[in-house]
């Protein structure tokens, strides 16, 4: 087992004193690094300086404040306000979002110097009012929220600066350590010595991994004479297993996805927990209002990034994020940022019929429901009945009234029902994209898994394609996603579907971020269109490892069974559920006893439909046993 412990890089944002202290240290560190030409990093020194806060207890007059600020500004390094304004804009700019007007606008107001809202001591003493519905006061309201978010922003900038300084130091370290033709591989004696102690020295392993990666990336110049590439790779893989705790089998599979240095970044990123993120439920609130409410409860947050209008990243909270009144009221759901992506790619429209084939516990179903503004109909299916409990609970809490929950093996679609406008297949997978969440994946996955899981995924994807109406007026799309980074579960599955179903083509996912899917891998060629699919890695976007592919069905196929009557089936399912009061505006009074009763009634109705009298006396168990014995 590996000796490395996963660490969570998220900490509480600093107090002002901590911040000032860290800044002084950082400035000194930066200055030291600038003095060393080999590791000069212009980006860190070009970073805008942050304005300091006063420490005096006594309130200052306006004049005193202006005087003090001028003095402080003189003493500070020159600030590139344009860069500062654009950095802030890129973090918070959501000007595209017309509908919800859901934004954290921290652009400077007229007459203000951009950047002055950083560490304004006035903001510390002001009370934070709730957002008002009054349009005129919105600008002030935004300022208040921005003030509250400044800490979060400063923490983020801090983290970035720390990272840059660390990277610069690492570069120097590596440059110092790796000399051309240096001996990097350990001798037999050294290895025997390492083995004797039982636990390996992590520093030795780490340094050696860095050195081997350097050699592999410039083999001609840096390799020792007489040593092969395979020898270096073999040692590196063993060190990865010892250091991070992977089975040799999985370490090798993951290593082969990347260049040696990128592989190291990937393994490192798997040791760090991803940020805690929440998705605003736009069926109940707007992100801006939710952020304000949470900030008032002592939650430190900021938007995830410009690519999502509904996500918030939580840095730190004085209250449990899964138990706030806003959470209980269904205003948000705790959801990994990567899970937003397939829903955004599917882009369901209002009034469409959508199938979510593997939907429990419902993070994506509830997002689809919100995107459809609770119109149309979503069939939320999952083969695992136990998991549909949390699916139903989430659907209720978030107030999604356009969903019907079912639990079929999704390979039975479209026989169950077909003719959907869009289908999401968020497939069961190996979980190699979420190792930071579930360390057991490092050692539990075997070769068999990467045969059996893709086999199921291929069957499910064909069912998904066959369940879509090629003639849908508004849709005709299928999105396939996994939280795996393995080619066998991603490109290979999609390529298989393209070959088996020539009536679909790959289309752009419409996602702003992501790396292009592989068009070939280790000698295997896929359709060139595979580059339209998207890959996500923890080390590139700080999200879980993920994969998203989007298909458009361009023609029906003989496999599209039972398309006819799909609308009628849906109407019947709806009527059943409405009759049983499952679909209604307020799910708050959902309780198990009532649910049991409804299920009993549903069973009775179903028996009646089959021509069986549900009230007919059941044979007693002893009579049934006797009948059985008689038959024998
Ligand atoms: C990745 S999870 C789905 C997560 C879900 N989409 C969400 O966002 O909350 C995969 C799901 O597939 C379900 N599953 C596995 N095999 C299935 C099958 N043959 N048919 C339908 N669902 C299946 C599992 O029970 C599991 O809930």
From TrEMBL:
Region annotation Disordered: where it falls in the sequence: 1-138, 598-632
Superkingdom of this protein's organism: Eukaryota
Q: Name one Pfam family in it.
A: Methyltr_RsmB-F
Q: What NCBIfam families does its record include? A: nop2p (TIGR00446)
Protein name listed in UniProt: Nucleolar protein 2
Give me any GO biological process, just one: rRNA base methylation
Composition bias of kind Basic and acidic residues appears in 54-81
The residues that the entry says bind S-adenosyl-L-methionine are: 358-364, 382, 409, 426
Location of the protein in the cell? Nucleus, Nucleolus
Q: Which GO terms describe its cellular component?
A: nucleolus
**Domain SAM-dependent MTase RsmB/NOP-type: residue ranges:** 266-554
Which spans does this entry mark as compositional bias, Low complexity?
613-632
Check the record and name the SUPFAM superfamilies matching this protein. S-adenosyl-L-methionine-dependent methyltransferases
Organism of origin is Wickerhamomyces pijperi
Q: Does the keyword Metal-binding apply?
A: no
Which classification does the entry list for the species?
Eukaryota, Fungi, Dikarya, Ascomycota, Saccharomycotina
Q: Which family does it belong to?
A: Belongs to the class I-like SAM-binding methyltransferase superfamily. RsmB/NOP family.
- Database matches in InterPro entries: MeTrfase_RsmB-F_NOP2_cat, MeTrfase_RsmB-F_NOP2_dom, Nop2p, RCMT, RCMT_NOP2, RsmB/NOL1/NOP2-like_CS, SAM-dependent_MTases_sf
> Molecular function terms in GO for this entry?
RNA binding; rRNA (cytosine-C5-)-methyltransferase activity
Instruction: Print the keywords alphabetically.
Output: Methyltransferase, Nucleus, Ribosome biogenesis, RNA-binding, S-adenosyl-L-methionine, Transferase
């Amino acid at each position: 087992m590996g000796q490395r412990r996963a660490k969570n890089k998220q900490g509480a944002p600093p107090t002002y004193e901590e911040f000032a202290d860290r800044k002084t240290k950082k400035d000194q560190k930066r200055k030291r690094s600038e003095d060393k030409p080999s590791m000069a990093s212009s980006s860190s020194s070009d970073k805008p300086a942050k304005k300091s806060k006063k420490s005096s207890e006594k309130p200052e007059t306006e004049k005193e404040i202006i005087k003090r600020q001028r003095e402080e500004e003189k003493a500070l390094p020159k600030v590139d306000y344009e860069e500062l304004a654009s950095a802030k804009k890129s973090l918070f700019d959501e000007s595209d979002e017309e509908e919800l007007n859901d934004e954290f606008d921290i652009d400077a107001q007229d007459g203000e110097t951009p950047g002055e809202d950083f560490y304004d001591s006035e903001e510390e003493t002001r009370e934070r009012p709730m957002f008002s519905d009054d349009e005129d006061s919105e600008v002030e309201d935004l300022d208040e929220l921005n003030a509250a978010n400044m800490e979060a922003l400063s923490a983020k900038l801090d983290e970035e600066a720390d990272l840059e300084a660390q990277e610069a130091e690492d570069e120097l370290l590596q440059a110092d350590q790796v000399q051309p033709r240096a001996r990097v591989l350990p001798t037999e004696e050294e290895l025997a010595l390492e083995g004797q102690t039982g636990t390996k020295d992590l520093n030795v392993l780490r340094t050696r991994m860095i050195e081997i990666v350097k050699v592999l990336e410039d083999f001609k110049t840096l390799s020792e004479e007489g040593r092969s590439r395979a020898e270096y790779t073999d040692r590196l893989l063993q060190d990865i297993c010892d250091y991070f705790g992977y089975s040799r089998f999985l370490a090798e599979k993951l290593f082969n996805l990347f260049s040696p240095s990128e592989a190291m970044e990937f393994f490192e990123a798997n040791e760090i927990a991803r940020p805690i993120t929440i998705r605003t439920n736009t069926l109940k609130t707007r992100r801006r209002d939710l952020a304000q409410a949470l900030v008032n409860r002592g939650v430190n947050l900021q938007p995830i990034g410009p690519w999502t209008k509904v996500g918030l990243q939580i840095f730190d909270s004085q209250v449990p994020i899964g138990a706030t009144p806003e959470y209980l009221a269904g205003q948000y759901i705790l959801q990994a940022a990567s899970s937003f992506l397939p829903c955004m790619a599917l882009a369901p429209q209002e009034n469409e019929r959508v199938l979510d084939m593997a939907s429990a516990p419902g993070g994506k179903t509830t997002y689809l429901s919100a995107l459809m503004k609770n119109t149309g109909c979503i069939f939320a299916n999952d083969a695992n009945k136990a998991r549909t409990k949390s699916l139903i609970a989430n659907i209720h809490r978030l107030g999604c009234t356009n969903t019907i929950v079912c639990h079929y093996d999704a390979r039975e679609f479209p026989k169950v029902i077909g003719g959907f406008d869009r289908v999401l297949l968020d497939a069961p997978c190996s979980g190699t994209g979420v190792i930071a969440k579930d360390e057991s994946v490092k050692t539990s996955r075997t070769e068999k898994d990467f045969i059996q899981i893709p086999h199921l995924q291929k069957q499910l994807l064909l069912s998904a394609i066959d369940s879509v109406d090629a003639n849908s007026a508004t849709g005709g799309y299928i999105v396939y996603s996994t939280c795996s980074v393995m080619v066998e579960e991603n490109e290979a599955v999609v390529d298989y579907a393209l070959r088996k179903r020539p009536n679909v083509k790959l289309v752009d996912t419409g996602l702003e971020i992501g790396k292009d899917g592989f068009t070939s891998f280790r000698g295997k060629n896929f359709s060139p269109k595979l580059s339209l699919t998207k890959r996500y890695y923890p080390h590139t976007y700080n999200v879980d490892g993920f994969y998203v592919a989007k298909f458009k069905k361009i023609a029906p196929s003989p496999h599209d069974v039972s398309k006819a009557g799909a609308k009628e089936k849906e109407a019947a399912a709806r009527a059943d559920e409405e009759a049983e009061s499952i679909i209604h505006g307020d799910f708050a009074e959902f309780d198990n006893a009532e649910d049991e009763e409804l299920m009993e009634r549903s069973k009775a109705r179903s028996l009646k439909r089959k021509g069986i009298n549900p009230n007919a006396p059941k044979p007693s168990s002893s009579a049934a046993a006797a009948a059985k014995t008689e038959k024998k």
